[in-house]
Amino acid sequence: MDIEKxxxxxxxxxxxxxxxxxxxxxxxxxxxxxxxIALSLAQGMxxxxxxxxxxxxxxxxxxxxxxxNGPHHGARGEDMIRQEIAQxxxxxxxxxxxxxxxxxxxxxxxxxxxxxxLPALSVETLLVQDADALDHFGGNALWxxxxxxxxxxxxxxxxxxxxxxxxxxxxHDALRGLNFPLSRRELQARIARTDAFFALWxxxxxxxxxxxxxxxxx
Length: 218
Ligand SMILES: [Fe+2]
Ligand SMILES: [Fe+2]
Known about the structure:
With about 220 residues, the chain is mainly α. The chain has a single domain, classed as Hypothetical protein af1432. It is built from 10 helices and no strands. Helix 1 (about 5-15) packs parallel to helix 3 (about 50-60), helix 2 crosses helix 6 and helix 3 (about 50-60) packs across helix 5 (about 90-100). The longest helix has 25 residues, at about 180-205. The structure holds fe (ii) ion (FE2) (2 copies).
């Protein structure tokens, strides 16, 4: 595959799109991070993967969502790839990448999939599903919380409350839907870091002093 041309096409489709209240080009940056996370997961578990296919599929997984709020963005992304850049892949690569894009949110372990007949998914698709979920936690969860708070006029107290309530639902769904133990470990580490941040912020909101707290503990 011609990865440089594929990246350039994806950049053109995703990088300049207004995604307010998220930053301009959010899908492009999310795609790049998801691709890196997917490669790291594969490496961390010594999984035999097609790295190019994994990277391209992960990078393009949300191309159908850039500037589009409608349903079935996976199928939409697949159609875009087939219509506009099919020639940049071998026939086998095209099928693999399109399958990743189409099924990136069809998670076998999610309660949304219960009772549905699912297609056989490649290991690359399962990795992209996990990487996609992971990218919404950790530092990016803070980023998203602040962007959404700004858009909805929330003050700090309301932001913390919203995070506590909403994130509990998101993390429950995400943890349940993951495919690999390493992804679960990473998600738990990311959740612990953001929880620590919000707990410290709550203390500051109450006017507590770090210095006094460490004195009390000693
Ligand atoms: Fe998506
Ligand atoms: Fe995504």
